[in-house]
Amino acid sequence: MSDTSHPALESLPERFIQRDPAARAQAERVRVVRAPGRVNLIGEHTDYNEGFVLPAAIDLEIRIAFIPTDDGRVELTLDATGERREFVVASPGPRRGEWIDYVAGTAWALTEAGLPLRGFRGLLASSLPPGAGLSSSAAIELATAWALSGPDGPALEPMALARTARRAENDYVGVQSGLMDQFAVTMGRAGMALRLDCRSLDWEAVPIPVDLELVVCHSGSPRRLEVSAYNDRRAECARAVEAIATHGPGISSLRDVDLSMLERHRTHMDEVAHARALHVVTENLRVLDAEAALKAGDREAVGRLFAASHASLRDLFEVSSPALDALVVIAAGTPGVVAARLTGAGFGGCTLNLVERGRADELRAAVERDYPARTGLMPQVFVVDAVDGAGFLSTPG
Ligand code: GLA
Q1: Which residues, in sequence order, are bridge partners of residue 206?
Q2: 384 CA distance to ligand 1 centroid (A)?
Q3: How far is the CA of 345 from the centre of ligand 1 (A)?
Q4: pTM for the full model?
């Protein structure tokens, strides 16, 4: 059973009405939008290389209670800290280097896409641990997109909406991320992982076996240099593509590269570019193999593929950390754990574990006992469910 219920989310509309006089005056107009976080089962750093990913939206989420306004402004308060920020929807101004950028960037990207937007006053609460690699930023973007739109939600096809939210991140916030997070937060389906081909944008819902639970272990380690290191990885992958394309025309991304081609061109690129590309090329194969193994109920294969993915992210892509490695080692030695690997960008953050249903407490106990001793850090363990994508919780009064 999922253990993600969060009192701050349940009572959000009431607290909004209590603390905001404008909301109090029009309590019947208060609406709530929710947007989930995500885990990625497998397929890491493949999305911006036009490869495959297998994420699932989860029931750790962002909610905004809000009233629409007609003054063209957004005024948003963080429930946890009381911090309040505002901007003009039609001209949000430059990036400020804080959480409001994800909100302002979404307003900017939706305006660029030609969507009619309204202003809103709102209160934002979250059960998603921030900076944990569970896509709290994409969740803020999608919750914002719904709050800025009319009563029927954003006037865009879901995939176009996901791509517009990604623009907020790429072109306003300045992280050169791929589409996975916004896709998962938009398209999430209860009980399902979603296998996306990031080149064709074809996707398929893949049932998460009912005898397995998703368990997220948060390393509690601060993520450092995340944006610059992330953008560096992207550039290193591009370097590998460039080296191969010089000698073999028709290559536009690592999706066009297979193992034998990569090895043939090994001497044409630096070692770092080769290692990054080797991760991506093999990770794409692991996504397709993991999808097949999940469908066949082959737990042993899923476990092997998760382990290989983690090792490749640690040794070739170099985005793991001693803390994440410790969580995976502890999980590997715990009965009932089927598969464990880091999830998301890395550089700190979380691991995702597939655990035999009913045995999550054994992993929780092992992590709480061994992890602080090994790392000096405090972990957080969440049993989560795969859920539907972003949307309104309540209907307008
Ligand atoms: C972050 C990015 C995604 C993806 C992952 C790594 O979550 O936002 O686009 O690249 O890292 O797989």
Answers
A1: 193
A2: 20
A3: 5
A4: 0.96
